[in-house]
Amino acid sequence: MKTYPVPPSPKLVRKKSKTGLGLYAGEAIKKNAFIITYTGEKLTAAQADERGGQYLFELNNRWTLDGRGRQHTARYINHSCRPNAEAEVKGHQVFITAKRAIKPGEEITYDYGKEFWKEYIKPKGCKCEKCTEKISTK
């Protein structure tokens, strides 16, 4: 399996967010810039199904990364229905990049996808900024 080079990450800060801990920009991040890679233990799909958990990132129908350990910094990126970042799978690596310019102090977010949303977010209600704004304007 080909391994892609990992560019240096911008300064990132873990701190409290509306949904627990979040990952924030410690400096300005330009649109399309690399932010961080999602890392973790590589599991087969069967192992991931057996283990379960909220930090599983599916690479393809055979492999999944389990980013549950606190050393895996990208696991702190929270879901948003209006994200400022996106995840791209290249081989068995996951690269998080900026969809738009991100200001220092701004929380980094990406869309976790329909399956995760249905299983984990919908039952409790989405707490992302977009959904919180909708609720407050009703």
CATH class: Mainly Beta
- Determine the N-to-C terminus distance: 50 Å
From the 3D structure, determine the CATH topology: Beta-clip-like
- Work out the helicity level: 10-25%
Shape: globular
Number of helices: 3
| CATH homology-level superfamily | SET domain
Give the class from helix and strand content and strand pairing.
Answer: alpha+beta
Query: Strand content of the residues, in percent?
Result: 25-35%
Q: Give the tally of structural domains.
A: 1
Show unreliable segments: none
Strand order of the largest sheet: 3-9-8
Radius of gyration: 15 Å
Main β-sheet, in a few words? 3 strands, antiparallel
Output mean pLDDT: 93
Please explain how this structure is put together.
It is a single chain. The protein has a single domain (12-131), classed as Beta-clip-like (Beta Complex). It contains three helices and ten strands, in the order E-E-E-E-H-E-E-E-E-E-E-H-H. The chain has helices at 45-51, 114-121, 129-136; strands at residues 12-17, 20-25, 34-38, 41-44, 56-58, 63-66, 78-79, 85-90, 93-98, 109-110. Strands 3-9-8 form a three-stranded antiparallel β-sheet, with no helix packed on it. Strands 4-6-5 form a three-stranded antiparallel β-sheet. It is globular, with a radius of gyration of 15 Å.
Brief summary of the model shown:
The protein is of the alpha+beta class and 138 residues long. The protein is built from three helices and ten strands.
